[in-house]
User: Which sequence fits this backbone?
């Protein structure tokens, strides 16, 4: 069989214009010049390099080590000022008060020897004050434009507060819902993840690093953090190169192509080498193959942890090896391992040019952000930006778009306005501000958050009685590390727990309809929040059973950051609306969906298992020998998930038809255009996400049974039809082959499906000729 190997890197190189290369600094810096891939979107202005080099020439070794040191500002500001003044701290994180940011910046600019400004980074994950749905919820919107708008708002609020850079987007594809950090990422699919990555980077950064009102985007955690063994946070990852390139890398490649200025290395070891000091990852793949020209930051204390992981002999060795592998800035709780770098250069264990390369990348970021000209933030304007009502409107729209209608037996939803005199909103998520916001939220205005109970109250007005009771208190067995920022309320006594449970059931008994707000507390997912059991925590199932026994109509609203084992709820409750952690305006958005003012149109970005034993379960698996795709994989559990990837219902119905390809046979490398019609066959306006999947029938590797290669969210009026069109180019049809150790295109027949989820039935095919 003829081989049609593509040297993708070469073609990328060839596509970069000479002009782009000339305006970049690639040639000015020896280490950057080694990159075989040069992306125009990663081009560094030559004058920034010249300026950075001039500074480097004046810096002492200690100042260089300081420039690649970023410290958590935990504790008293005074304790950090001396380091800033001495030039031994180049960046800070966890400062959000603009006055404090200016105070530190003044010390850096006016009192340090070289006057180099500080870079302020922060976890602006789904908003700063105005909180958008958690990232997994934004992924469920299948609407990159909505995500871009949301991150534009987040950037505006952050920049107005003095923050220059965010540790987002988190792009870790994962197929294990036991892993807590699923809530922060794009879900299980590389194609959806790549689309979201591009949108998030555009939202944060705008059209260039240093654009007004924007901040540097930091793609994290590089790479494969989401494949930790057993879903245990920080645990080892063992993946093949083919899984690495085909499944885990695409969102990062997309972020870098979109111009992301920063990448954060991951904590865990990839195939026995910690990511923070993994030269293959940070230099071969990131810089040479992907063409990244920005700066790499370690994850928090990730350099020091090289010692804990049994990789580095001591902290100085850790600092040297992280830097030599391709890391630049160390993020640490003081003292940083990088404080030993000057001595390492003096003793000959580190080449000064390696340190200079890292320093240069950090300085270039500061130069591009305009910090030498404008180091300070105008604190008198911060509040105006943070309280902009347009931000809340965006947050509400985003929350509405993120909602996924998991089931709606008997079309119990939408509720008819005015049909109920008394509504009970019951459950731990019913009126909980923290759980409406989710994790990675530190400085919102808690009092501005609209909970579900409050949202329903506002929607139905004063004539309808809305009662609420948590019924159950959710607490983690092991406290979350984030409780240091916001302590959890005291645990209920058993008498209180009993009384609260009974009160909730009583409220349900008195009501015409019960909205059960269930899920996982915000601190139950996120970092260090892995679980071995995915059932609803606490006494929630007992609450479901007690309410069900009352014989009232029930609707469940879920707030959670990952698929949960909800099989008992799915069989007991006819309608389930997945709301994720919907953010500041969450209660308004969910209430509007419950009453049909908006029609849910989100889709699952994760396959939803029936039980924890099915994990990992993902739609894009390979076809194996018997049992076949539909066959039985376990004798004690169904093989199919509870809800497939891409699933999400609507209050209206959609039909797909007229699927066609423009050419049934193409030469290798030629594009194919796929077209289909989607029609709203129901009686309400609604959104459908047209999803295109392919399968390559034969080739140099077995290819997944289905792979998402296109999607489009469309709004259709009742009876309206729309032609949706997708182009399958080399980018969609190529894959990384272990046999060739390169990206390849195979001549083969490809099946194509277009429909409303990953089980789409409408099919056609085309053949790629040798
Ligand atoms: C997390 C990162 C985060 C950093 C700073 C780490 O523990 O893994 O995602 O950006 O802390 O808060």
Assistant:
């Amino acid at each position: 069989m003829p081989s049609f190997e593509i040297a993708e890197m070469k073609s990328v190189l060839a596509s970069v214009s000479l002009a782009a290369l000339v305006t970049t600094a690639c040639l000015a810096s020896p280490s950057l010049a080694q990159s075989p891939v040069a992306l125009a979107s990663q081009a560094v202005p030559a004058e920034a390099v010249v300026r950075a080099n001039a500074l480097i020439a004046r810096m002492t070794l200690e100042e260089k080590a300081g420039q690649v040191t970023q410290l958590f500002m935990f504790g008293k500001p005074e304790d950090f000022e001396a380091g800033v003044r001495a030039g031994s701290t180049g960046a800070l994180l966890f400062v959000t008060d603009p006055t404090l940011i200016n105070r530190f910046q003044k010390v850096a600019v006016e009192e340090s020897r070289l006057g180099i400004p500080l870079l302020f980074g922060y976890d602006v994950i789904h908003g700063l004050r105005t909180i958008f749905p958690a990232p997994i919820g934004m992924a469920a919107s299948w609407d990159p434009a909505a995500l871009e708008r949301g991150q534009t708002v987040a950037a505006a609020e952050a920049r107005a507060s003095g923050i220059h850079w965010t540790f987002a987007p988190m792009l870790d594809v994962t197929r294990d819902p036991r892993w807590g950090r699923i809530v922060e990422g794009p879900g299980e699919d590389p194609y959806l993840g790549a689309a979201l990555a591009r949108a998030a980077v555009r939202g944060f950064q705008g059209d260039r690093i240093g654009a007004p009102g924007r901040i540097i985007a930091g793609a994290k955690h590089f790479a494969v953090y989401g494949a930790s063994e057993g879903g245990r946070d920080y645990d080892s990852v063992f993946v093949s190169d083919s899984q690495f390139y085909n499944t885990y890398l695409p969102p990062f490649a997309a972020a870098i192509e979109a111009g992301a200025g920063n990448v954060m290395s991951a904590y865990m070891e990839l195939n026995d080498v910690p990511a923070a000091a993994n030269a293959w990852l940070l230099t071969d793949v990131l810089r040479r193959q992907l063409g990244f020209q920005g700066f790499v930051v370690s994850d928090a204390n990730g350099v020091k942890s090289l010692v804990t992981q049994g990789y580095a002999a001591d902290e100085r060795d850790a600092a040297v090896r992280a830097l030599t592998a391709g890391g630049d800035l160390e993020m640490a709780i003081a003292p940083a391992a990088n404080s030993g770098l000057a001595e390492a250069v003096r003793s000959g264990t580190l080449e000064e040019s390696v340190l200079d390369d890292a320093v240069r990348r950090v300085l270039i970021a500061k130069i591009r952000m305009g910090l030498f000209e404008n180091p300070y933030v105008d604190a008198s304007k911060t509040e105006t930006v943070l309280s902009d009502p347009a931000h809340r409107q965006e947050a509400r729209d985003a929350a509405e778009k993120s909602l996924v209608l998991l089931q709606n037996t008997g079309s119990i939803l939408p509720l008819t306005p005015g049909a109920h005199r008394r509504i009970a909103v019951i459950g731990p998520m019913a009126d909980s501000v923290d759980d409406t916001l989710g994790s990675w939220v530190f400085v919102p205005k808690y009092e501005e958050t609209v909970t579900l109970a409050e949202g329903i109250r506002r929607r139905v007005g004063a004539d309808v009685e809305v009662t609420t009771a948590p019924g159950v208190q959710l607490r983690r067995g092991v406290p979350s590390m984030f409780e240091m920022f916001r302590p959890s309320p005291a645990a209920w006594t058993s008498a209180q727990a009993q009384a609260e449970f009974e009160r909730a059931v009583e409220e349900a008994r008195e009501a015409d309809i019960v909205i059960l707000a269930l899920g996982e507390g915000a601190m139950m997912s996120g970092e260090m929040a892995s679980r071995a059991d995915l059932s609803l925590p606490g006494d929630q199932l007992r609450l479901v059973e007690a309410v069900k026994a009352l014989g009232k109509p029930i609707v469940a609203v879920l707030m959670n950051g990952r698929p949960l084992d909800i099989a008992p709820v799915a069989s007991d409750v006819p309608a389930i609306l997945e709301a994720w952690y919907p953010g500041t305006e969450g209660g308004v958005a969910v209430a509007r969906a419950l009453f049909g003012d908006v029609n849910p149109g989100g889709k699952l970005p994760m396959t939803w298992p029936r039980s924890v034993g099915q994990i990992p379960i993902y739609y894009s698996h390979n076809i194996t020998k018997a049992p076949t795709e539909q066959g039985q994989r376990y004798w004690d559990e169904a093989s199919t998930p509870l809800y497939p990837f891409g699933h999400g219902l609507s209050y209206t119905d959609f039909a797909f038809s007229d699927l066609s390809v423009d050419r049934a046979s193409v030469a290798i490398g030629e594009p194919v255009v796929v077209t289909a019609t989607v029609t709203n066959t129901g009686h309400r306006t609604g959104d459908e996400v047209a999803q295109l999947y392919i399968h390559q029938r034969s080739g140099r590797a077995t290819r997944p049974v289905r792979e998402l290669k296109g999607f489009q969210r469309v709004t259709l009026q009742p009876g309206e039809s729309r032609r949706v069109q997708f182009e399958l180019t080399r980018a969609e049809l190529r894959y990384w082959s272990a046999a060739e150790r390169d990206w390849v295109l195979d001549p083969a027949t490809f099946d194509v499906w277009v429909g409303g989820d990953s089980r789409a039935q409408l099919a056609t095919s085309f053949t790629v000729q040798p």
